Amino acid sequence: MNLMEKARRQAAEIVGAAYRAAVQAGALPEAETPPVVVETPKDAANGDWASTFAMQCAKPLRMPPRKIAEAIREQLDLDGSCFSSVSIAGPGFLNFTLGAEWYADALRAVEQLGADYGRTKAEKPEKVMVEFVSANPTGPMHMGNARGGVLGDCLAEVLAWAGDDVTREFYINDAGNQVDKFAHSVEGRYIQALKGEDAIEFDPSWYQGGDIRELAAELVRLHGDKLLELPAEERRKAIVEYGLPANIEKMERDLERYKIRYDVWFRESGLHDSGFVADTVALLERAGATYEKDGALWLRSTDFGCDKDDVLRRANGFYTYFAADIAYHRNKFAVRGFDRVINIWGADHHGHVARLQRALDAIGLDGTHRLEIVLMQLVRMMQGGEVVRMSKRTGKSLTLSDLLDEIPVDAARFFFNSRAAETQMEFDLDLAVKEDSENPLYYVQYAHARICSVLRSVEPSAPEALPDLTLLTTEDEKQLIKAIALLPDEILLAARDRDPSKLNKFGVQLASRYHRFYDSCRIKDAEPELRDARLALCRASRQTIANVLGIIGAEAPERM
Known about the structure:
Elements: H1 3-24, E1 38-39, E2 49-51, H2 53-56, H3 58-61, H4 65-75, E3 83-89, E4 93-98, H5 100-113, E5 127-131, H6 143-161, E6 165-172, H7 177-195, H8 210-223, H9 232-257, E7 264-267, H10 268-273, H11 276-286, E8 290-293, E9 296-299, E10 310-313, H12 321-335, E11 340-346, H13 350-362, H14 367-370, E12 371-376, E13 379-383, E14 386-387, H15 400-406, H16 409-416, E15 425-428, H17 429-432, H18 440-458, H19 475-485, H20 487-496, H21 501-520, H22 528-552
Parallel strand pairs: 5-6, 5-11, 6-7, 11-12, 13-15
Antiparallel strand pairs: 1-2, 2-4, 3-4, 8-9, 9-10, 13-14
Helix pairs in contact: 1-4, 6-16, 6-20, 7-8, 7-9, 11-12, 18-21, 18-22, 19-21, 19-22, 20-21, 21-22
């Protein structure tokens, strides 16, 4: 129930009808006019909605815009509308002021919908997959995964609230070179754990993290030196069969702790084992999009406007990661029937976007329009005014698990979602744990807790019906109600722009509006009818803040 959008459309309809009435009355000439545009005025003192229609019509009607606006105002019919008045300002702005009943309806909508307030039923809902994180299961998740996890999860949530059918998916890269390197890395540490550091030279290209040592130690605990008796290939296979599931299980635990739950965990290995990668490459060959050179099979990426061609199958017969990626996305569209796929990728993958889209185009899947890539910039972790570079536990970059040991999960989610994906961000670890208004999450959560405190101390027991909400007439009351009414619009904008950080900003603005209302309007000792109306406004504020925090994945505490 989007009452702000309803008011905007109603204003446009009223202006259009008034123009037609003015033409019929002979006050304005008939001409081909542009669509009526209604916008939010820059200055709230000029009304709640404003139309520039009179200025737009100056040229086609060959009249001064002020005279056009006056002729239109003469024909305006506000009966049954949500507006109380219309004024003319400047060269011909038509400024609409919302009536008391609209404000009352806005609060009734929150009361009626409760935890679903802000949800929209899309006219044409899409079946959408959001794929995010998809970290290699060869080591712990880092800060890029931490940011991408929140951005992907929050984007999926706003898309669902905007009316789409959304699936969250994690792509497990359990095939290819990185798995082979993982096996060699753990094998090297396993041998060193049993025979000493000098027993084998640890290749600098192998994985260096402490997690590799931990896996090797666990294999020693489970098998002793028995794996050394196996041929090298069998030993590495046994390491992968133990190590990858162990890492994936840890990823699931960390993500669950991070309040991220996937609908699907999709394995790359399944694409290879089923022959789906080979079948997809064959489709590209039949489409004339490939050629052979030096024993390898290449995709004609330069034909699609890319700067170089890409190998699909190496001379040794193995398919590349790119070939698997094309097959994976073919599976999303052609097999599972998603209308739209949105991937959250690091900005360093920007060169891969067009290649993948055009490859899907070549096999008739319209990747250019149906596959969207949200490119995410880097994040810098700050503490004490300095960049955090090291983790005490691993000796390398800070991991997701390390972060969640340092700060609350809600703070991590809120802070990582505080900037649009394409914006570089600094994550202030000190600010994230601060318990004052400087911390934006604390500021929003405190507003919710403050409302709960007011309702506990003042609210009459179980009111049978809503009070007279038209008594809410002060500017701070009206501005708070308008802020509450914006939630459905903010969710739609966040979904449209693929930018869930809009909800963070909205939450802070809403909390600010509530604090102003609280400071300026008496509640407990107001006249009973006005007190009850203000309590209804408190309840609507509490519900709206709780819904915003819920979308972001943060708690709405009743006490702080």
